[in-house]
Amino acid sequence: MLETIWFVLWTLLWAVYFVLDGFDLGLGALMPAIAKTEEERRMVYNASGPFWDGNEVWLIAAGGVTFAAFPKVYAYMFSTLYAPLLLLLFALILRAVSYEFRNKVDSPVWRAMWDWVHFIVNLAACLLLGVFFANLFMGIPFDANGVYGGNLLKLLNIYGLAGGLFFLAAFMMHGAIWLTIKSRDELQTKALAAAGVCWVAVAVLLIVFLVLTFFCTSIFGNYLKMPWLIVLPALAVLALLFVPRFLNKGHLWLAWSASGLFLICVTFFGVMGIYPNMLISSTDPAATLTAFNGASTSNTLEIMLVVALVMVPIVLLYQFWMYRLFSKPVTREELDSDHAY
Fold first, then answer.
1. Which of 69, 161, 165, 328 has fewest C-beta within 10 Å?
2. For residues 102 and 138, what is the distance between their CA atoms, to the nearest angstrom?
3. Which residues contact 109 (CB under 8 A, 6 or more apart)?
4. Residue 175 and residue 122 in contact, taking contact as beta carbons nearer than 8 Å
5. Does pLDDT of 146 surpass 90?
6. Helix-helix angle 252-274:108-138, to 10 degrees
7. Rounded distance, CA 142 to CA 131, Å?
8. Which residues share a beta bridge with 142?
9. Do the beta carbons of residue 261 and residue 40 sit within 8 Å?
10. What does DSSP assign to residue 330?
11. Domain 2-327 has what CATH class?
């Protein structure tokens, strides 16, 4: 029972991370297409600037839970998927540097360099997260000792690439909607148009990804065994359909919330589809790690559950307060302040 609870909590942490950090990753990947002037680029940076580092807390939490609740899964995961996870780490480090270093030198060339770094690493992070999870769903070639039987290129299979492109489009849509909330005038108009284009891309890639999921994974098997799980993809599709409806009516926060709900449901759709598996071996089924054979002891899980029930609501309340505090659009006056990016 405790293993299942922690499996669901592990999934939830990843889902919250995708909702919160997804918008600034997507916004960074979208920046060259919508921010053409220096002021617009600074608007984009300041739309995500107060949030990105707090959002990454949920990635740390997801990694920490994997380490503490499912230590064997953590060990095998970082052995088999070492290369993409290391590339993701470098991308996130460089993203942080791009925020802080961009305005350290008053030079257009210097700022342009960091703008391109910011775009490339955000683009790479979106793709890597999609490739990572797509391969988790499909299975990875490793043996009972956690020795990976492939290379980085083997992860860039058709299903992995489809997952990467789908995550990229979903995060860009999420980020474009966020920019409509945080901007005004011409930039808001461009962000709204970008959100519409990204929505079409997400809808198309969702269909492609689901078709490939049917042929490349066993995810749909769980949905035949537990039909009630169908509520997850149904709710995801419903949330996605409501995104343009809310945007057209000017309900920007509702549109962003619908986009966030879509990301949550998609995450649960995939992860609950492989339950109780967590790390599937495509070459040796006996080596597959589940929520049960890869979990910590019951005492550890009990103690962690108590800590989580106390601390997670506190973190959520703090982040709610932070988002409420910085909920207003970025203004030209704010760009002139000392704390602006």
1. 328
2. 39
3. none
4. no
5. no
6. 40
7. 17
8. 148
9. no
10. P
11. mainly alpha
Q: What is the pTM of this model?
A: 0.95
Contact 7, 304 (CB under 8 A): no
Tell me which residue has tokens 């057209």: 248
Domain positions in the chain are 2-327
- β-strand partners of 145: none
Strand partners, 140: 281
Structure token digits, residue 38: 């220096």
Q: Quick one: pLDDT at residue 338?
A: 67
Contact by Cβ (8 Å): 233, 187: no
Half-sphere exposure of 60 (CA within 13 A, CB side): 9
User: Token pair of 10, please?
Assistant: 């592990």
Structure token pair of residue 282: 């495509």
Which residues, including other chains, have CB under 8 Å from residue 157's CB and lie 6 or more apart?
A: 135, 138
* pLDDT single digits (tens) 17-30: 999 999 999 999 99
Give the integer Cα–Cα distance in Å for 122 and 171: 10
Encoded amino acid at 241, one letter:
L
